[in-house]
Request: fold
Amino acid sequence: MSKTFLIAGPCAIEDKELPFFIAEKVKGICDRLGIEYIFKGSYRKANRSRLDSFTGIGDEKALKIIQAVGEKFGVETITDVHESYEPAKVAPYVNHLQIPAFLCRQTDLLLAAGKTGLGVNIKKGQFVSPDSMVFAVEKVKSTGNQKVWLTERGFSFGYSDLVVDATAIHKLAEHGVPVVMDCTHSVQKPNQTAGVTGGDPSLIETIALSAAATGASGFFFEVHPDPKSAKSDPHTMLQLDKLEPILEKILKVKQAVS
Reply:
């Protein structure tokens, strides 16, 4: 993609109404600002701390909702895959696949995603250096698929915090692929004793503007009209009505440094 692009949507597909509401609002914002929009929603949440955490409404039902959102609003779509059998199963419903950060070294998963021919967004593990992400890129490209992105989402700092290295965007871009800044997961505070990931959404804008200044091509936001009621990641999602002002600032920063 040649211009700034946005990956945004709810953390998970919670029901059949919310994804359409969010997509309509975000599509309108992106059209006004001239930003390419990709709708994101996890069809299933496989990485949960607690056994009783929400994981989804059913795979096929959620995938059909994502597909319908893309068709209704004329936008591309992306969802996570977790095991090597999933890419082939999910590919008919979406335009892109996302590799979760914890799974960025899983060779069979990366190869299976690459073989679909869809765009593959690999989230950098919290435990992986930007330099070593070249190997994940090589795994996908070995299938003949050159449509790879890398997403920065912070580094583990102690047991219950993340930090974002301002040099990471530049280092990831040296692998010759578009780099996305995950502005919401980067404010997580994982491994809380309650078994629910915490976070500090007041820092989302700071991380986004820093990434704009250091060369990010795309920006990832999980958004929700009422984050506290969300069934997944309520402590890190951006309230939907705060998205447009941040995107406006991102564009100004990118123009200033170009």
